[in-house]
Batch of 4 targets.
Target 1
Amino acid sequence: MIIIKRMFNIIKLNEKDNIGIAPMDIPENVDLNIGIKSKTKVPYGHKISTKNIKKGEFIFRYGQIIGISLTNIMQGEHVHSHNLSFSEFERNYKNDFDHQISNNINNELFFNGYKRENGASGTRNYIGLISTVNCSATVVKKIANKVNLKLKELNFKNIDGAVCLKHSSGCGMNTTSYGMNVFNRTIEGFKIHPNFAKVYVIGLGCECAQISLYNNDQINRNVEYLNIQDEGGTKEIVNKVSINIIDQLEKINKIKRTNIPVSELTLALQCGGSDSYSGITANPALGFASDLLIDCGGSSILSETPEIYGAEHLLYERSTNKLNIEKIEKQIDWWKDHLRKSNSALDNNPSPGNKKGGLTTILEKSLGAVSKSGTKNMVDVLDYAERIKYKGFNFMNSPGYDPVSVTGQVASGANVICFTTGRGSCFGFKPAPSIKIATNTNMFNKLEEDMDINAGAIMDSEKSIEEVGKEIFNKVISVASGEKSKSEINEYGDDEFNPWIIDPTL
């Protein structure tokens, strides 16, 4: 009888690495493709040492430091939270700022979108109902529900629906604080977002976030401002606004899609790193798609400052100027101070789900997360919800919490979202469509009704990073042109609007 010994493969990402990644569950004492045996069991997606590592030595992944060994680690051992820890260290980068912005823009690609009177380009045609304060949240929800019921009855093809943007803030705030400025920018960004054909900004009347703060564009006929206290109460305002919108539906439905250059798309690059495969499959593929979009004159926004920490030097190397680097340095210093006040730290990430998926330290998570940004020069660094000023790749300061981060990206001008996930997600976001990209085939097959693209094909050796990147890019154009993403088919995205609350509630 012939006994065939199975060879177990591990993935080594860089020559400098002293660990590899397990693309399957690896048993104890089996042969590995790098000429060693496993000393312990290693779960799917987790790390295995490729050489003996002494206590206190740096551990490398992607050719970058992801932490320090807590113990002596033998070749072939499982490497995770029990023997690997976060460690601060000096990060070096090289940048002479001699970056050339390419003028070879591909102007031949178009999407079918909505051209607004002010020249902005939308990918959806929604009616927006924005509450300035939680006290008007129920009112905007009731109005949206009434309008959406009417839209189902009328079956207008060119209206995507009414969206209620309700939240838990708007009062009990310091009106002169940084947090209030951030909140105001967020409301402003959604008020003028090109995915809205018509917007109603509705307050209670006595809150800190007064509608007078936003009623600054009287020439914009597509935005209206109302207070519940001025309109005779909740029933009166619900009926008044509902009737007003319903009377305009026929007019809004006459707005039709037209050919618009792909350069008018702004892509939100979302979710840091869900599992060990994020930085191997979905994130670099999304980075390739981002590069393709920028080659067409478009823009992309990376965010989640706590989830670039430890990999920020990779962005510094691509910055077009010193000021951008100084902005990120200040943002990270702010975060450290902010977390110190709550007895926390940036290395408290990853989450339990991230760790189960094979990630151990914030450094490892961040290195994978930054790969979403592709290779193009970083043209600007934005504060949360700050409007994009320059075409190309931008970084925006935000928390790592996805709904809060996406809210800031869309307020900055993103009209399409790409969301990578290794653990699974049902995320949707209105008014910007969300495309979800699975990092591994196993999860994609389990949650296919929620996933748009399977980047796990890269790990399965069925497709290259470039092939999946082109697939993502083409999906962005299709969805921008009206094709529904999985989250839209499932009617998700009504409850994810989540402005960043920074200051204490007074």
Note: The longest strand covers residues 196-203.
Target 2
Amino acid sequence: MRSKKAIYNIISNLMLQFVVVIYGFIVPQIIISNFGSSVNGLISSITQFLAYITLLESGFGPVVKATLYQPIAKKDNKTIKNILKASEKFFRTIAGIFIVYIIALTIIYPILVRNEFSNVYTISLILIIAISTFAEYFFGMTYRLYLQAEQKTYIISIIQVFTYILSTITIVILAKLNVSIQIIKLVSSIIFVLRPLLQNYYVRKKYNMNLKDAEGNYKIKQKWDGLAQHVAAVIHSNTDITILTFFCSLTEVSVYSVYYLVVAGIRKIIEAFSSGIDASWGDMIAKNEYKNLNEKFDLYEVLYFIVCTIVFASAIVLIVPFVSVYTRDINDANYIRYTFGYLIVISEFIWAIRLPYSSIILAAGHFKETRIGAWIEAISNIVISIVLVFKFGIIGVTIGTIVAMIIRTIEFIYHTNKYILKRNIFESIKKVFLIVIETIIIFILFKITPQIENTSYVTWSINAIIVSIEACIVTVLLNIMMYQKDMKKIFNKVKGLLARKEI
């Protein structure tokens, strides 16, 4: 049952991420083409500022999810309801604080951020973009966490696919009708309000989850220990654009956001392979199945890094050619930045490498044990980025992120192997070293392989296919050489799954 849910989660999440990637490419291009790079930069900046409200969440969400694993495994419905009630109370408080934050942001943002837009224009966008975030905290966050802990992430994915498709179609139609950006964003926000409402409805109906008689004062352990983890995650996702907003221009923010939408799309694809897996780890840990956990993680580690290397190594050489085609008709900013393109992909590549280890840590509930590293990551990211932005601009903030990511990734690998899996850390180091070697070989092959001139999406796609094939061959062959037994087990499992489908 555990494996079945994991497969459902991965497939549905891959479908979701495909839709998200399409949405992420279509919408910014529509905004840039119809309203200009500055408007796109303004929207990206506002979105990032709104994201800082999640700091008030204090990392509560992952802690709640980790707390739910054991009562779900024991089918302790009373404890489950008590946890969810306490969670709902907390998130609705956050929703209330969010309203105050929005009011403050409408006053402060137009003063602090220099741009060519009127205060009314800027404030209206802040209020409109904030709608869906408020709804998420007020209506749906608790039930989203419950579905994740139940290993039913696929329900969340299906709902999100529906809203993203609906939003994309609506935005395209409205843009063709030449309506204002405010109307476009308002309709989109209203559509995304459907997500928490549908999640809420599903859980209440499916599980008869009536929380009226549950205890709202249930004490959730490590609530504040999750703060550091959460702060580090928020800073990683939002620091760069925030610093660029203050120290550079909205045009530079737009450049960053275009490149980031590419790596964010890749990130979503990679996340799909880990979505719901942390719940499986949590279930094994709750049942003390550590031998099984180690065996499953060994195979997952090899398979995940193969996918990760193929995707990111290809992205390093393909990102700038893609952006050049994506922005070919846009002349109000220079979007062709080779060094920046390489660095932003490397940044997300490092994040991806640490993902299997962070999922184990979160599943085990080791928030307190790893909080110092989280604070170090957050502080170093901010300090280095601010220092370097004055001299190197957009490249400087990316370097700051990379340095912070490396520090944190080392800690994750060390802690997971030593304190949870209790195995030799050299096993993971060897795998990471292999990733570096594979990426270098793929990059060299790209440089020496003749390429078709990059003039359209068609020619880019042909080059992308060639690079991806080279990446697959290099990565799979080297992994067969290094991890013959593990690769054989992986092939046998895939073969078994395909045989089941044929039956």
Note: Residues 61 and 164 are 23 Å apart (CA to CA).
Target 3
Amino acid sequence: MRIITTLAQLKKSGYQSKSIKQELRDNLIERLKNKQKVFDGIIGYDTTVIPDVERAILSKHNILLLGLRGQAKTRMARQMVNLLDEYIPIVKGSEILDDPLQPLSVYAKNLIAELGDDTPIDWIHRSQRFGEKLATPDVTVADLIGDVDPIKAATQKLHYADERVLHFGIIPRCNRSIFVINELPDLQARIQVALFNLLEEGDLQIRGFKLRFPLDIQFVFTANPEDYTNRGSIVTPLKDRIESQILTHYPKTIEDAKTITALEADLSTEQKEKIIVPELIKDLIEHIAFAARDSEFVDEKSGVSARLTIAAMENLISTAERRMLINNEKQTVVRLSDFAGVFPAITGKIEMVYEGEQEGSIRVAQNILDKAIRNLFVQYFPNPTKVKKQRKNQQEETNIYKAVQQYFENGNVVDLLTDTSDKTYKNELDKVLGLKETIIHHSSLNIDHSTLYTWMEFLLHGMAAYSLLSKFQLEEGNKFSDITSAMFNYGNDDVDDELKDLFK
């Protein structure tokens, strides 16, 4: 079709104009009939959000994606571009992508009146038919819709009411395109009001001039269910004009969350080749996000983005890589002690309530990590709480933790430092009598040589999380010892909060 360069050729080709919403609908119908995927890389929405978006497109609705941060709202909006025709014709030189068969602007109308069938035609790719604006309090009507340009009026000696003196904003320039406004509640109410006519009648109103300008735009808005920034909300008449409101959500399963993190984490080829990440570690990363969303210290209104686990995974692997480089090793396996490098990703991705601020960001991050360890631990090992409640004779038979506890009760300690070499790390874990045997003989675990020590360390962290051992946070890593040692360190800032509560 790109060989068509004039209006006459376009008419001869039999090209039919259609609205962008009809265009999206027709192409979606084709994809659904052919069982083609509509949205790529969107995980966990197959039975919830995606069907709702497809129904909205079929209904030719403007769409509001309502959900907490990090729920792929903007990504879905951007992928709607793939439902547009690959190329469409425009009047060459038109600022607002005028349809040659249905021109809107004075420029296009005058050009067609002057040149007739010889009017030059351009073709634009669907990638150019997308506009996006992040709503901020400083956005003006002129930014979105446009304003009178006094310089144009003076140089061309035109009246201010003449369309030719207008300087178009981003929305008119997105005529025949998809236009996204992110974080709609952050847009001032008076600016939201300016969108009323665009959504309902398709009119443009600039200053006090009468202007009939039926733009052809597919609007997509994103917003948080509750505006935790306290900057505003969506005004009711505007909400009424957005036909489909679709609720998004966080991944509902650990598997979906792991898939998202694996797709999005920006890892170098070198990192992928030299850093081994056991499935246990991948699961723990996702459990951190789930634990954060349930934490009493985290503001649930702000949400916990999937970006937390992505950043956490990147930081975790970088921590392991740094340790490998320091020790001049060729390959390494991610450890639980590497999670010290994950705290910046956690503290930077959560909004805390007042109680969380009092605790401090690092304490909250440690609390979330311990909670994630506890939640994951009982999926593989007997619940220590239930074991402790058993009678003594029952414990003798079922307590798999006894041998490890006995080692620390004899006054032994284990230091697992963040930057220690693999050899030293393994030697330190091997010192714990009964630790390796407990892991190897625990039949429910799928253990191989590369992950054995990861599981050994995980057992120590899990036992500490359930107060079978004490764990002290050091600047260089973690120290494990007998639970009674916490009594003699009461008041030490490095002692876990849970242990402090235990001995009050």
Note: The longest helix spans residues 307-326.
Target 4
Amino acid sequence: MAIARYTASADTTITNAFEANLVQRGTGSNMGYADSLEIFSIYGQESGSNGQSQELSRALIKFPIATITADRTAGNIPVSGSASFYLKMYNAKHPFTLPQDFNLMVVPVSRSWTEGAGLDMDEYKDLGQANWGDASRNVAWTNQGGDYLTASNYNVHFAQGYENIELDVSEIVERWITSANEFINYGFGIHLTASQEAYFSSSLGTDSGSVIQNTVGATQSYYTKKFFARSTEFFFQRPVLEVRWDSRVEDDRENFFYSSSLAPAADNLNSLYLYNYIRGRLVNIPAVGTDDLLVSFYSSSFGTPTGSALSLPAGGGVVANDDTNATASYSSAGLYLCQVALTAAATELLEIHDVWHSGGVQYYTGSFYPEKIPTYDAAPTFNRITSCTNLKKKYSPQDTSRFRFFVRDRNWSPTLYTVSTTNNPTDIITSASYAIYRTTDDYPAIQYGTGSDRSTFLSYDKDGNYFDLNISLLEPDYMYEVRLSFYNDSIGAWQEQPQTFKFRVEE
């Protein structure tokens, strides 16, 4: 599982816009329970002694950082530097004009605020906090329109106006988690840039009541941009903080190759894992904890290690040529990873044993069957058939489930001997990604992560490819389908596979 989502814990719109009478402003209005958030700037709707009028609307949004921190402590999301946090907000269509070619600032709020229970976004009749003037009851903003840490900000461009926000805010979130330099989670403020919020200049050279002095502002309007709020009925349109990380386990025990002079050094390395499952869950080896292990390799005699430990070439967990131990590092709870290359002897070994040990104690002995890296006299093409071997018809939102796949070349033709003597091993796909779509409307509930974050890459082990999924990411009472895409090195492109795998999510 390499994706987690945290829905906003509070959000609201604050505004100094005129009410319908174009005399009074909605500065005391609260919109905390509204199903959308609104951001706009209106210039010159009214004229007065201070020139043309300015009307602004801004959004405030907050996420449950305490829950995220607890999940990190529990090991549900990885440590700082191993995960990325994305602010995701979704465009809400409306019948009004939509500005184009504008920028929104996403800025940390510097003061605690109250969401409130207002709904009215048209006539501003629902009063309460937070609003344009007050952060919470009996606590005014230091500055009209909200207090922000302007030194830390993000800028998001909207070319057409209807775009969503998908913004990497990892730096700010990590500071919230650690409360670095008293950097406290009060959420984000979202508003137009100073150059696109409306111009206003007071004769006093200061803010004028609820109107912000802005001498670099625009003399045109940007009306209006809306996002769905956390109160929306649309499950996948709620604003979320999405955490992504690379959780792949790439275990080459069933995909182990001898070194080749034709391959770069990195491609000659193989990964092997020790899985310390105790009563069905992965736990650290008590005497080892998060420390390193050593791994030695032996030839096999009647299924057991024999002779002296094999000499290993430098690379991966091997410091120098002819060392007989490779270092295995801690990967995650109960997982230890060793990367090693093996050079084939004059007489190739058909079976090799890996012995994991530390301080004179042997913790695990495994085995694998190395092969030569295949070579081709022409660019290979693949036509594969995939099945999901453990797919269920329905899942509960409370489930975290592993989806495991069996892959074979469509043209595979086993001999009678092969069929009778093997368990038909699966092909290992070293670069595979999954996506999940809602079948009713083809909505991408989870999109392919084939970019730098690799959050939807499939893991693999001796039993083939798999991924883990927290079913709570999906809206209940709908049918979904899993789609797979494999990377084809021969053409340098991803190829979506024809087989899909459908299931329902039900409470």
Note: Residues 252-368 form one domain.
